[in-house]
Amino acid sequence: MIYRLLALNIDGTLLQTNGKLNKSTKEVVEYVQKKGIYVTLVTSRNFPSAKKVAKALKLNSILITHQGGYIANFFDQPIHMKRISEDTTADIVRLLEGFDCQIRLVHENFSLANKASQTSSMMAKTVFTSTDPVFYSQQFVDSLSDTILEDPVSPPKIEVYFEDKEENHDANKAIIQMFSEVNTIRINEYRIDIVPTGVSKLSGLLYLGEHLGISIDEMVVIGDGIDDLEMIEAVGLGVAMGNAPVELKQAADWVTRSQDQHGVAYMIKEHFRKQHPIEFLRKMNIIK
Fold this sequence. Notes:
Helix 2 (23-34) packs parallel to helix 11. This protein folds into 2 domains: 5-81 and 199-283, 3-Layer(aba) Sandwich (Rossmann fold), CATH 3.40.50; 86-196, Hypothetical Protein, Haloacid Dehalogenase-like Hydrolase, Chain: A, domain 2, CATH 3.30.1240.10. It is an alpha/beta fold. The chain contains 12 helices and 14 strands. It starts with a strand and ends in a 5-residue tail after the last helix. It is 37% helix and 22% strand. It has helices spanning 10-14, 23-34, 47-56, 86-96, 121-128, 144-150, 165-178, 201-212, 229-234, 246-251, 263-272, 278-283, and strands at 5-8, 38-41, 63-65, 70-72, 78-81, 101-106, 110-114, 137-141, 157-162, 182-188, 191-196, 219-223, 237-240, 254-255. Strands 8-7-6-9-11-10 form a 6-stranded mixed β-sheet, with helices on both faces.
């Protein structure tokens, strides 16, 4: 099979545990682009944060961000977006304020979160150790519901960080039962993402494929999280990182090394060195 698109998750995949890009990863992304492969990022991150990583990789492609809810090119021009309505956002916030959690409304231009009490080091690390660019405004308020009552927000995504696994489960169940307008995506035992119904990383990837004229069978996805599972099962070649959970590894066609063992670089070198450049394949009338 000839592959024409490579989709990469960011956290736990491209980035090492120290949050940095390894030089070998940058080199292989440049190498595969020279072969004519379209390289994109598919991430739960907001667009400015994903764009920061894309810039470090010298990508100027269309990026799939906010779990697939916001798709835009490198020049900040969205080609597709879906939002949670202002009324639904307000209702979800009021519901979640009954739980011990941090609620983050993730807009493409800013984020707005409540100042939840944080006894859990996991929550504190996840929410406050942000890799968002300096110009991406992050505001923390005492009452999120009061704030958006005065100034409503319609975000592509809501992130929710819990102190307790059971609270996560109960809140997730309540949202599913009460709101048909949204889906919940399990990130881990302490976090869920809330997105408009029909939004997922896979739906975003399918949209981009249709936009570029590339079929799902011609795509390679490398990921490490449960929210990458649908993509890895659907594409022509699904690759799980060595640090991925067992569920993802079992679904993948290929398991590469971990993020700290340069798993992305290893996989790309092993596979794409065997594939001729896209332009050459066109000249040979192997592909159109």
